[in-house]
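Input/output pair, single chain:
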Amino acid sequence: MRRVILIKYGELSTKKANRNFFINTLYQNIREKLKNFDVKIHKDRARMYIEFMDKDLDFIKNIIDKIFGIHSYHIAYIVDTDDSMIQSTLLECVEKEKFSTFKIETKRSDKNFPIHSQDYNKVLGGLLLKNISNIKVDVHHPDLWIKVEIREKESFIYYHSYNGSGGYPVGTQPKGLLMLSGGIDSPVAGYLALKRGMTLEAVYFEAMPHTSVEARNKVIQLSKKLAQYCPFIILHVVNFTPIQEEIYKNCREDYVITIMRRMMYRIMERLVYKYQGLVIVNGESIGQVASQTLTSMNVINQVTSIPVIRPLACFDKLEIMDIARKIDTYDISIIPFEDCCTVFVPRHPVINPRLDVVIGEEEKFDYSSYIDQAVESVMDIVVNSEEEHKFSDLL
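Output:
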């Protein structure tokens, strides 16, 4: 028997004039992620089908689970649209399953098929009741919900449903630049931005020798996790040491975090223009730390006109940690290598900074030349997903 992976679009089906654009983007993303496998992908406005080699099924399912734009998918059996073929295939498949109750739902797209959907439910249900012992029909809460789609040439039989990641296909929205630290929050923010269809590149601010190579490698590992949800991640590494040292040398201690974040936003704005993005994305959550009070956010945001997307703004820490565990970034994030945001935290950072005070403190040193230097010396790292590295090791 031939099998395919039958993909259902979910939220994509709500699109009208742009529906083909979303479906084509999803198709391209799936094709890119499965390029190392012997597959054939077919698409239409209602479904997508992937023909695969049986030996690759578990690998492919693991990849599909992380492709945004898929609401759900099924492993479907394909059979010629012929009553006797459908019945024999259904019985052969279902006999392998363990269940006590079942429901059959027929969808007759081919109106030339001689038996109406409701009547065919009864025919197929009777077939199973006659040939399999100790089972009964339950239309409300069945153990096995069998679906049969009757089409013109070929029909589909499937029952087990697998949840996709939902959202929109990556690439259906323009590019955003993610402020990616080694903490828990920013990788989760990146995941949620990708889920809404953004193309994403990441920016990591490091302050060698105050931070370590291990801290950078930690961010690379987090980028690999995010790259499972998109073709790849470009990680831009910014040398923040000169700016950070000048801030701590010249500015009052309680304002250094506020000023540091303003410098980061100035650099991010330059990088958004440089890499042709539209927005800044970060992991800020309202009130979580001193720089994330509404007053702090307002003062920090004054330095840029670029929109700042904060997917976690209204999440609490436990909710963020739950998502981090789900996407497998949590254990990496808690590895104790400090980044530039934590290595020089003052004892009592200001939580309600005044804009006039911040401006006065910034005037104590010529930060513009340092920003120019930071933007010009960015190091770029192209990061592919862990799955791709694992697969390459097998070749």
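DSSP finds 14 helices and 15 strands in the chain. Residues 240 and 392 are 34 Å apart (CA to CA).
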